[in-house]
Request: fold
Amino acid sequence: DSVKDAKDSNTVKMDSSAKDSTASGSGTAMSPTVSKGDAVFVVNAANAGMTEVQLGQLAQQKGMAKDVKEYGAMMEKDHTEAGNKLKALATAKNITLPVAISPDMQKNIDGLQNMSGADFDKSYMNMMVDDHKKVISAFEDESKNGSDADLRAFADSTLHTLHKHLDKAEQCRKMIKKM
Reply:
């Protein structure tokens, strides 16, 4: 589980920076401004973002409704951009990111891969509404309570896009129900 491995690696880095706070340039310690909560947020945000990219690609392939395909393209584009910003921040803060999505997220993707047509569209859009509500909550929490100013700013600047995604997902879901 790459997500668990990343969290474990970050815990080790935090422990080494706590023990070794006087040494500089060790290269293994995490930035002193990053809390355990910040590191968990970064790993979870990366996991969610990678999942959204893969689901967006799947929606473009399997979606039946034009709006679902367009939504998938927006997910792929926007979450790739946010993921690149997050990777740069994680590198600067020496936070380990997962290299693959979590098994739980993979189950969601696998479940959708076995669907087609209206069933896919409905399940995908329901998932997007639910996922974006959870992610918005996590980003709002980080924006208000994170210990690292750069990570708070990232969360805050990403919230507008996430709200746009949720609004569009809710619109698509309503449209699909009418079909």
In short: Residues 21-27 have pLDDT under 50 and may be disordered. The longest helix spans residues 149-178. The radius of gyration is 18 Å. The chain is about 80% helix and 0% strand.
